[in-house]
Specification:
about 80 residues; alpha+beta; SH3 type barrels; 3-stranded antiparallel beta sheet; two-stranded antiparallel ribbon; 2 helices; 5 strands
Length: about 80
């Protein structure tokens, strides 16, 4: 079984900006995100870092938001 892992730490102006997480194909979160291979979490949603990284639920897009985003059309200029 493949693990979900922290892949990269993104820096901006010498400060932590976001965390890039690689999602295991067979994980629950991959199914929830529609098979996404990764996720970028803004640092403000990271609650703790150690052997386990704890993030806020607000960092994970909801299914409803993802469906609205994919079904919306760009406004005409």
């Amino acid at each position: 079984m493949e693990e979900t892992t922290l892949e990269r730490l993104n820096l901006a102006e010498n400060k932590v900006d976001s965390w890039r997480i690689k999602i295991a194909k067979d994980s629950t979160i991959a199914n929830f995100l529609g098979g996404a291979r990764g996720l970028i979490v803004p640092h403000q949603f990271v609650k703790a870092v150690g052997d386990v990284v704890v993030i806020s639920k607000a960092a994970i897009p909801s299914k409803e938001a993802a469906e609205e985003e994919s079904s919306s059309t760009p406004a005409e200029a």
